[in-house]
Amino acid sequence: MHQQVLARLRENILLGRIEPGQALTIRGLAAELGVSAQPVREALRQLVAERALELMDNRRVRIPPMTIERFEDLIAARIVLEAEAAARAMPYVTESLIGRLEAEDAAVNTAVAERDYDRWIGANYAFHSMLYGAAGQSAFLPLIESLWLQVGPFLRRAIRTISGHYTVDRHNEALAALRRRDTMALRIAIEADIRDGIAHIGSTLIRSEALGAGTGADAVRGPSTSSGRAGVVSEAV
């Protein structure tokens, strides 16, 4: 039961169903999930240890609020770990894996067009985790998952502000690098995917809120280009 509760809470955090700063109670979560308090308590303890949640003075837990300093640290860590994880996966990449990655990328495209945030974030995470997991069990994977859990709630909030425009599809660049077995190009594509996506819109959103400028789409809209995916800054990863 503990693992089932933990999986549900991980999914809710990763997909951004819980807002940054939102407080959670054991009793409330137990009622929502239809379980006793004990597995919820154990799951929350683990998520606090992973820094996806933080313990408050009143013994409640919450999604940590996002500051520009914390956000930039998380993005820098993601770039380092994910570029390296992708490079280490290259020797294990098969045509079958590339086909599955293409399917996940197509799912991202569909979700973007339909503004389906659960599918958007979920398919995007599946694309990245499927690639990084090609090498099997790795010390990188739990670290990367922890970073995604810490960014997830803010990611959903950020992509809701994006208005329709075009930019380069970095997933396509990563797929092209995989087909060529070009490890350096893959590193560059993954880093650019993170920098052009959530790193750009997230830092802009945080700064605009700090200045009291609001969170409208105009605050985070980037320049249009003639190629790429409609309605999303990169994959907003």
Task: Walk me through what this model shows.
It holds the Pfam family GntR. Keywords: DNA-binding, Transcription, Transcription regulation. GO terms for molecular function: DNA binding; DNA-binding transcription factor activity. This is GntR family transcriptional regulator. Helix 2 crosses helix 3, helix 4 packs antiparallel against helix 9 and helix 5 packs antiparallel against helix 6. The chain has two domains: 61 residues, Winged helix-like DNA-binding domain superfamily/Winged helix DNA-binding domain (Arc Repressor Mutant, subunit A); 152 residues, GntR ligand-binding domain-like (Four Helix Bundle (Hemerythrin (Met), subunit A), Up-down Bundle). Strand 2 and strand 3 form a beta hairpin. The C terminus is likely disordered. Helices cover 64% and strands 3% of the residues. The longest helix has 28 residues. With 237 residues, it is mainly α. It has nine helices and three strands; from the N terminus they run H-E-H-H-E-E-H-H-H-H-H-H. The protein has a three-stranded antiparallel sheet with strand order 1-3-2.
Outline of the structure:
The chain is mainly α and 237 residues long. It has helices spanning 2-14, 26-33, 37-49, 68-89, 95-114, 117-132, 140-159, 170-180, 183-210, and strands spanning 23-24, 54-55, 61-62.
List the helices and strands and how they pair.
Layout: H1 2-14, E1 23-24, H2 26-33, H3 37-49, E2 54-55, E3 61-62, H4 68-89, H5 95-114, H6 117-132, H7 140-159, H8 170-180, H9 183-210
Antiparallel strand pairs: 1-3, 2-3
Helix pairs in contact: 1-3, 2-3, 4-7, 4-9, 5-6, 5-8, 6-7, 7-9, 8-9
